[in-house]
Amino acid sequence: MKPRISMITLGVRDLAQSVTFYEQGLNLPRMDSPPDVAFFTLNGTWLGLYGREALAADAAVTAESHGFSGFALAHNVASEAEVDAVLAQAASAGATITKAAEKTSWGGYAGYFSDPDGYLWEVAHNPFFWVGPADEE
């Protein structure tokens, strides 16, 4: 297997609410897609939103899940100020800030928010992780 993640698909309870959160709240660029799914481009990969029950059925698993899911998505930015700005944008879009941004033990600066379905996003400035021109707008 070649190391790459082509798409991250989140099973969501309310597709319209999640589309609004990601498209209007976080300003992710939405692609044309069928009405029962939404795709967003993420600089080298895609984010997919799909009904939670439908995604579980597609994977032949149960849709019931409680508590911490065991993973977090990460968004690395170029500065501490940008971490604060992204967290503020997420909060104004309806996210819950689960951990305010602070200096980290590994020499960076990071905080967390959860989206309307509870998916965790870390927003971090890592001075050892290059955020290059392709990542900047």
Mind explaining what this structure looks like?
By secondary structure, this protein is an alpha/beta fold. The protein folds into two domains: 7-58, 2,3-Dihydroxybiphenyl 1,2-Dioxygenase, domain 1; 73-135, Roll (2,3-Dihydroxybiphenyl 1,2-Dioxygenase, domain 1), CATH 3.10.180.10. It has helices at 15-25, 52-58, 80-92, and strands at residues 7-12, 30-31, 37-41, 46-51, 73-77, 96-103, 109-114, 120-125. The strands form two sheets. The protein has a four-stranded mixed sheet with strand order 1-4-3-2. It has a four-stranded mixed sheet with strand order 5-8-7-6, with helices on one face. The longest helix is centred in the middle third of the chain and has 13 residues, at 80-92. The chain is globular, with a radius of gyration of 15 Å. The mean pLDDT is 89.
Keywords:
single chain; 137 residues; alpha/beta; 2,3-Dihydroxybiphenyl 1,2-Dioxygenase, domain 1; 4-stranded mixed sheet; 8 strands; 23% helix; 32% strand; globular
